[in-house]
Amino acid sequence: MAASLLVFFLTLKMFKLWLTLNLPISLQNWNTSTKSSCPTSSMSLIKSLTEAELRIREIMEKLDQQIPLRSFTHVNTTTSAAHSITTILNPQVTYCRGDRLDILLEVRDHLGRRKEYGGDFLRARMSSPSLKAGASGKVTDFNNGTYLVSFTLFWEGQVSLSVLLIHPSEGASALWRARKDVHDIIIFKGKFVNGTSQVLSECSLTLHSSAELCKYLFGGEHEVFYCVKPQHMPCEALTHVSTRNQKTSYLTAKEKSLFHMSKVGVEIMKDLKHIEVFQCNKNENVKEKCRIGMKIPFPGGYMLQERWITTFCNQSQLDTMKINGCLKGKLIYLLGDSTLRQWIEYLPNVVKTLRFFDLHGTGSFPKRLLLDAQRHTQIQWKKHSYPFITIHLYSVTDDGYIPLEIDRVLGDQNTVIVITFGHHFRPFPIDIFIRRAISIRKAIERLFLRSPATKVIIKTENIREMPIESEWFDDFHGHIQYLTMKDIFKDLNVGIIDAWDMTIAYNAYFLHPPDVVIKNQIDMFLNYIC
Ligand SMILES: *[C@@H]1O[C@H](CO)[C@@H](O)[C@H](O)[C@H]1NC(C)=O
Ligand SMILES: *[C@@H]1O[C@H](CO)[C@@H](O)[C@H](O)[C@H]1NC(C)=O
Ligand SMILES: *[C@@H]1O[C@H](CO)[C@@H](O)[C@H](O)[C@H]1NC(C)=O
Ligand SMILES: *[C@@H]1O[C@H](CO)[C@@H](O)[C@H](O)[C@H]1NC(C)=O
Ligand SMILES: *[C@@H]1O[C@H](CO)[C@@H](O)[C@H](O)[C@H]1NC(C)=O
């Protein structure tokens, strides 16, 4: 056993070495500008796969196993919230703050028959509206039609429990299948400028066209943006891009019936009354101060009186003086989408001395810069480059492809990078998201080699509106990305701000969470860096 494992690892090592050695040759041999020269023999196909591509395949295969195809003949055989049964395990007469409460969920179909497989997309939350309190519950899928839903009773008072069936497993499976086939759901238009003339041209992340193409390599050979080359315009003349959403669905009529408004996010725990949680004089465990690199559990905190309280570290209450002192001399890079842009818009409320500096940006979502010249604090936000979805023309000249932005940072103990991406990737094949996450991870590793003191914080994707008009932006896709991202970044020395967990706790079903959530994300951020 041990010997065969050793042989396996040696083979793997040699294979990787062989890959590294062969890589430069294979790239030379593979002339990307011609279609006929694609490698055909399996040998050259293996050669063309970089380690990153192998990792992407590995992750995708793992996801396929987690979300198997579930065909169904009738809605009757899909999961029904109304027929599913929940039981509190080991019910107590009195619950104490800090206790765990477990619920066994047995899912049934619309005819009341037990289901024998899992995969339902569920969301568990506990709340006390009068205390402005909320927290996520943890769902464990046993893949046999039963689930364990665990809540930690973080606060005292009257607590309601909720488990929502967001999509039955058959619906989740249909979304996953559809995402594999997805193409041309988001149509990109590029604006090219030559002197006074402007031309709009079709662009895409995967363009199958016989026309002459402009090819923009923004992450080596594997991340490419294409535009049909306009006449009398060089490829470099691309200045702005906008997008349009096709109203196409890849779901069958039968599958679509699972996504009717009345069927999305249905409460399963309808019969449970409140439970009463008491203080019971239990001592709280002493917690370490929050710092970067801590492993964060799920749930990693809860909302109480609208304040986010972490469960895995001791947050400090930072006053203005502390914050001002902490931000002195700091260079902060916010790289991502508009959910991080919300931070830079909100920050002047937290730090009154920060002023926006006009960067002469054009189009929507230009680069943003906040300065406190006296304290030498600089905070900038840049959008994360393709794919970026908006109907308004946005400038591509100040785009920030995250791996490249990280490579440009020298880094020191006063440099902070915050990263978020996800929402704009939902309507594209998952490998585009995975490839970007791996590229970002590699850039962070390079950064830590030259500057281990630089602080890197990853903000995960948040939940959004439900139900949603277009299946492509569904939280199911976001959840897969969220789990994948946590997995890819798990053993890096980075801080995590779990926006998914937080927005469930805050019941914030918005693409752009309300200010109270942003405020608490920034508080968490300051706790990591101060
Ligand atoms: C790639 O193929 C094109 C078209 O056949 C040719 O013009 C070009 O020189 C080739 N480039 C390389 C690097 O072989
Ligand atoms: C679905 O269930 C309903 C209610 O039990 C029943 O009337 C109907 O015939 C069933 N349809 C199919 C196709 O099984
Ligand atoms: C489902 O799986 C869990 C965990 O393996 C097991 O404890 C439980 O008995 C199973 N339930 C059924 C109905 O098979
Ligand atoms: C720009 O447009 C002019 C007028 O159509 C054309 O002559 C020129 O070649 C164009 N420039 C480039 C670099 O394509
Ligand atoms: C958190 O830190 C403060 C100040 O250092 C300390 O008084 C408090 O007991 C700590 N709380 C926990 C739960 O560790």
TrEMBL record:
Residues 308-530 form the NXPE C-terminal domain. Keywords: Signal. It comes from the Eukaryota. Residues 1-20 form the signal peptide. Belongs to the NXPE family. This is NXPE family member 1. The lineage of its organism: Eukaryota, Metazoa, Chordata, Craniata, Vertebrata. The gene is LOC101718601.
